[in-house]
Amino acid sequence: MDWRSGAASDIIAEAAGAVLLDTSLVKVDELFHIARRLRRIALQSAVLGMALSAVGMGFAAAGFLSPVAGRCLQEVIDVLAIANALRASRSPARLHDYARPHRPLG
Asked: Do 31 and 18 form a contact (C-beta atoms < 8 A)?
């Protein structure tokens, strides 16, 4: 098999985590913005869920929550964490650092 036949690019595309078909580096910048945003939202959801669960366990250990109330509170905490994570499905306000050039009027 000759590496210049194009089969090598197919193998590289299979092994890559992401393949950009555009020659512009704008897509790379957008990819980094998306990755940072998704990581930030995932960390917020995880930390929020664990912190609220720890507070709830503290109240339960002190005797302020019955087992049924604790379970219901845990469900509310889980829904809040999932709702926060669903923010990732919305389009972000901006995806890149550069300002688009303005076209002259006229």
From this structure: yes
78: containing domain: 48-90
Q: Contact at 8 Å (CB) between 37 and 88?
A: yes
CB 22 within 8 A of CB 96: no
Alpha helices in 62-88 (DSSP H): 67-85
- Give pLDDT, residue 88: 84
Overall pTM > 0.85: no
Question: Which token pair is 27?
Answer: 């897509």
Contact (Cβ atoms closer than 8 angstroms) between residue 28 and residue 20: yes
Please write the tens of the pLDDT for every residue from 68-94. 999 999 999 999 999 998 988 887 776
**Does 62 reside within a domain?**
yes
Q: Is 73 within a domain?
A: yes
In a domain, 61, yes or no: yes
Burial class (CB in 10 A: 0-12, 13-18, 19+), 64: exposed
SS3 30: helix
